[in-house]
Write a structure and sequence with these properties.
Helix content is 5%, strand content 51%. It has 1 helix and 14 strands, in the order αββββββββββββββ. It has a single domain, classed as Porin, CATH 2.40.160.40. The longest helix is centred in the first third of the chain and has 14 residues. Strand 8 and strand 9 form a beta hairpin. The chain has a 12-stranded antiparallel beta barrel. A two-stranded antiparallel ribbon has the order 2-3. The chain is globular, with a radius of gyration of 18 Å. The chain is mainly beta.
Length: 263
């Protein structure tokens, strides 16, 4: 079996060596999440003498919140908000709050993600280095915590209307104290028009004390002013007995409506 670092290094080398210099890059929020911070507009003027050059704020309604193919909302509607801080030196930070439903008792209802990172230009591509902390502040069930800490590296490049990304993430102790994990993910998106794009993800997660899983999604996103509508189909390859005897891992469709603005 190939080691995840070797696989990622091959993808990284392929993107860098085939990338023309001077390509555009797109700052983003936590790459594991649905919420993605959009780049500042062309007329963007950085704030002076402020810790953040600009802020990105977003609020979403989601028909089914999927975290890497796994439904964290019991395949029911939920909400999400995102606050992202841009800096002109490539550093960024932010938080994502999402309603969740694991059918546990007492009920855990909130996921809080904190992230900090830096974008580094590499041979015309963008290398995004990030630290992600996932925390469930109102988890009161017995047993190990649901949260995790995950350093991530992602390289991306835009070829005209096509954007390709490759990501490698590692956790010393994945959710529910399941041990070391490695996560590899590839993303492709294509802008059909200035308001409509299609995209897809494919990923593989290996967990020391858990089931290896592959996850995927494919969908389209339409934008109008500060609003966007995303329709997506995705899931994992885990069977019901491997997924707590629920349908949280089975493929399904989801729709997300988002209001977002750069301030």
């Amino acid at each position: 079996m190939n080691h995840p670092i070797i696989i990622f290094a091959g993808v990284l080398a392929a993107v860098i060596t085939t990338t023309p210099a001077g390509a555009d890059t797109t700052p983003s929020g936590p790459s594991s999440q649905q919420a993605q911070a959009a780049p500042p507009p062309a007329h963007f003027t950085p704030r002076r003498n402020a810790p953040c050059a600009a802020y990105y704020v977003a609020a979403s309604m989601i028909s089914d919140y999927r975290f890497d193919g796994f439904s964290e909302s019991n395949r029911e509607p939920t909400w999400q908000v995102n606050l992202h801080c841009y800096r002109t030196d490539g550093f960024y930070a932010g938080t994502v709050l999402t309603g969740v439903n694991f059918e546990d008792r007492p009920r855990t209802t909130l996921e809080t993600d904190f992230y900090v990172g830096k974008h580094v230009p590499v041979a015309g591509s963008d290398l995004n280095l990030e630290l992600l902390e996932v925390w469930f502040p109102n988890q009161r069930t017995g047993g190990p915590a649901y949260g995790l800490f995950e350093p991530e590296a992602e390289v991306s490049h835009t070829f005209g209307r096509l954007t390709l990304k490759a990501q490698l993430a590692w956790s010393p102790n994945y959710s529910s104290n399941s041990g070391e994990s490695w996560h590899q993910k590839a993303t492709a998106s294509f802008a059909l028009t200035d308001w409509l794009s299609i995209s897809g993800h494919y990923g593989r997660i290996t967990i020391e004390r858990g089931f290896e899983r592959h996850h995927f999604d494919i969908g389209a996103t339409a934008k109008w002013r500060e609003l966007s509508l995303d329709a997506r189909y995705g899931g994992t390859d885990l069977k019901k007995p491997q997924c707590y005897y629920t349908n949280w891992c089975a493929p399904g469709a989801s729709v997300t409506v988002t209001w977002a603005k750069v301030l």
